[in-house]
Amino acid sequence: MQGASAILRRLSPVRPWFRNRTAASWKADAYAGLTNATIVLPQGVAFAIIAGLPPEYGLFTAIIVTVVAALWGSSQVMVSGPTTAISAVLFASLSGLAIPGSETYIALALVLTFLVGVLQLSAGLAGLGGLIAFISHSVIVGFTAAAAVLIAVSQLGPALGLPGGTGGVLHRLTGIGADIGAVNPNAVIIAGVTLVSLIILARISRRLPGYIIALVVGSLTAIALGAEASGVAMFAPLDAALPRFGAPALDMDTIGTLLPAAVAVAFVGLLEAISIGKSFAIRRGETYDSNQEMVGQGLSNLTGSFFQCYAGSGSFTRSGLNAESGATSPMSAIFAAGFLAVLLVLLAPFVRFVPVPAMAAIILYVAWKLINVAEIRHIVATSRSETFILGATFLTGILSELDFAILVGVVASLSVFLNKSAHPLVAVGAPTEVNGRRVFRNAEKFDLPQCPQIRFVRIEGPLFFASVEHVEREFRRMEEKDGFKTCILNLKGVGKIDLAGADFILSEARRARAHGQDLRLIAANPEVLTVLERLHCLDVLGPENVHPHKSDAIRPAVAAAADSICASCDIRCFRECRDKPGAERHAAESTASA
């Protein structure tokens, strides 16, 4: 848990970027905010529909959550608000408890948002931001792809003029197949025209308010076709133009029911926000504080639950547009929320002219853009373990529930991490020439000759209770292959060592000495050396057998090698071998053969 001063600093509304405001930055942020507001107006409606909520709730979220997250977050350009992934998880979590869009459903969504805010804020104040690094990026890629498929399938019905259906992907597809004879041709035309318009506008320029223009085109198409008279559904007028204050209906039974879903939504939200925030911070050369971002996300959702908002997170689309539009600080997100409130008041009366198939086409486009095809290809091509995590998360989301997919993804990610930790690389090295430099490389992989008396071993990874068995098994395999040799053990790649690791080193030292050999260590990490000293390894090994560099270990090991064996050795893989018997003969033979 962080100290009281650190907690107060994270909760302070006075942010460091306040001091750097100039006339030029105000202007740049205002322009970026206006551009963002035109994008989020139709997006907010679409995301609320995905979440099973009335359209205005997505817009309220894009106002309140955006402002609070901007003020207390860590990123300079990330814009928070409603997102497709969060909307999909919320719908999957609540649709089995109440009818989407009903008063009960809305009340549950607000309680869920409150719980998400409490969990995220608590995690940020507890300094748990570093734990996110242990979760593979493949989890969010697989989860997002599964959410995109569910979103797309949920909108196929409305795009065809059919009911949206309920349940998972397979159940919805089955329902659409059963009703395929009732497709409304006008609905298909409206959806098609809207989708094509949006694709064309996106190719022309990302700065264009493509969603609004596409919705206008779709609405005009509906009017020209007389769509409403032919049975095409239209949106109902918004119940309110601006959010109102109201406390969520909290009770212990509801909290107990919603807590598992809240954990899933909170986790997805933090993973999204921190991934986006770090990405932009690296690109722009800015500092980023994961714990501060968690506080910002938590406060935004906690506050939002009192103002008719549902859970939000960082939006990659809006953040990317914000950065491209020249945003210099979180003030651009605050401007975007303000402009959106003005647009909402002005345009609310016209929502009733928007046909449902046109919005379905917008959501289908959003779902398609949500799938990161390039990243999926990269993961599949480069890593089997990450492909496993991606596949497990995606398939669970398709065949089961999205919130369960997150759990499966996290478990798979941690399992892979633990498996890698328990199986560090144990490799025999040998010197060779690379680009004129003498370096050590994997002897087995590159088929390099080894010294018949000295084995040079490197461990890459932690040497602790879970990995000792694997490391010992590799050592025994080496002995079976090459016999017993003096061992130089390079620990520079070992970041952690515990009592079990120290016992292994002592066991190997005693084993070597019992065979008339020895064990020498290369260790320079102060933490590793401190542990070895505290666990009395250095007392047994002797300080003369612990070295900071390879050359310091190789020199005495070669000097102690049996001269009788060196005299007939033609390998001479170490430079130090030139001082051993037989070096003159080997040099003469090498000159003669050359």
UniProtKB/TrEMBL annotation:
Subcellular localization: Membrane
Keyword Ubl conjugation in record: no
Domain STAS: 444-557
Stated name of the protein: SulP family inorganic anion transporter
Ranges annotated as spanning the membrane: 30-51, 57-74, 81-99, 105-132, 139-162, 182-204, 211-235, 255-274, 333-351, 357-376, 388-418
InterPro entries reported for this sequence: SLC26A/SulP_dom, SLC26A/SulP_fam, STAS_dom, STAS_dom_sf
PROSITE patterns the UniProt entry points to: STAS
Pfam families assigned: STAS, Sulfate_transp
Membrane disposition: Multi-pass membrane protein
Domain of life: Bacteria
Keywords, alphabetical: Membrane, Transmembrane, Transmembrane helix
Protein source organism: Paracoccus stylophorae
